[in-house]
Amino acid sequence: MSPRTIRSVLIANRGEIALRILRTCREMGIRVIAVYSEPDRSMPHAVQADEAYLIGRAPASESYLRIESLIEVARRARADAIHPGYGFLAENPAFARAVRDAGMRFIGPPAEAIEAMGDKTSARRIVKSSGVPVVPGSETPIENVKEAEEFCDRIGFPVLLKATAGGGGKGMRTVQSPAELPSSLRAARSEAASAFGDPRIYIEKFLEQPRHIEFQILADEHGNAIHLGERECSLQRRHQKIIEESPSVLVDERLRQRMGETAVRAALACGYVNAGTIEFLVDQQRSFYFLEMNTRLQVEHPVTEERTGIDLVAEQIRIAEGMPLKRPQDSVNFRGHAIECRVCAEDPQNDFLPSTGQLLYVRPPQGPGIREDRGYEQGGEISVYYDSLLAKIIAWAPTRDAAIQRMRRALQDYRIVGVTTNIGFLLSLIEHPAFVQGELSTDFLRQHFRHGHSRVLPESSLQAAAALCVSLRTEVDGKAAAFSSAKRSRERPGWKSLRTRMTRRQRG
Fold this sequence. Notes:
This protein is an alpha+beta fold. The chain is about 35% helix and about 25% strand. The chain contains 17 helices and 22 strands. Strands 13-12-9-10-11-14-21-19 form an 8-stranded antiparallel β-sheet, sandwiched between helices. The chain is globular, with a radius of gyration of 24 Å.
């Protein structure tokens, strides 16, 4: 074994991804340095690290996004490298440069690659010059409404307005007609400026009912690059992914080879190093187009790990140490089927409004083929300051049907009390006949959930239990007082009132 050149890593993130990175570092014998904001003082990533440092107040702009503070802590803790996780500063070229200039390794791509591929119009030009097909769209950011109108006249409506500097659905608007264009452009610019500090917008042709399929790639500094197969990410809400799986039911071996080779070519075109993801849109004729590149670890990376047995964080660290890739393309082995569901603190019955509060009780799913990546423990506080993602459930099985059944059982077993979650909504999705048949598109929710977002309430079993308890108590006591005393009982802090209707039947 080569001697370890990275012996200590500062994780510039929080929550489940910080814990995920921490565990791999522990397995590799690497000292872990965590950072935390004031409300995150007792978070598992801070408690479990070898060292943990306060970096600021609750807002991310005053803590996790402060480059100077992170570099100062890394120096004080004598970190050899910094892992950015995803979100926050993960795709910020200034942060990658600051880490390098401070004499530490950045566990991610070079700043130049982040810059080239982080600017979406620049990325389109780079990959297009390498023969990679792209969705028709503007080659430079749109300057004003008149220019937008003229471009849309050439490619036709509907179109997508997209932020030049970022992704994740921020600054993105679908425009169906010329009348919607001015207001949509203003809104997209405002959101892009707020999310990325950059208001620039470009335009892409909107593809009808495409599938969103991405390829995980690894590249080292010696010119080697491979892909680790595809992930289907078509189930989205407001351009943000909800459920991901690998492999895609759409992709056969021939298409997989073509898309994989194209993904590798796109990565090499920008001198990419480390782990990254090339995202494609695939139309109904199975033609595929480059969408964008994510120059970081993806939220959905566990489905690739489950299918290949490859620890992507360990690969990232090895590449950052200057080591060549461990395997050529033809030695990557794929097995079975993996599905990931994102469990979020949000209310599907109220337009997915984020839910905050204390996690009073957590019972995670367990059993064969189930993995849970969670950043909070029971008793933890879900605040308004950060993303609503609570956990990720990953189900692996030899076949897709078996993976769906395992995921269904895991979601039914999952118990979270204290905040409202989207678990019932996730159950509705994976049980839907179209999902079971693999009939997916980015338009799935609009097609199949037009009149509501959740048909399975996570509280339904609790409501049934409450009704049964009242029924049994009344039968035993034989008095109506049971009902009045229940109504008068004082509600405790953190408890939630539930109302249900019970129908009583004689003889069972």
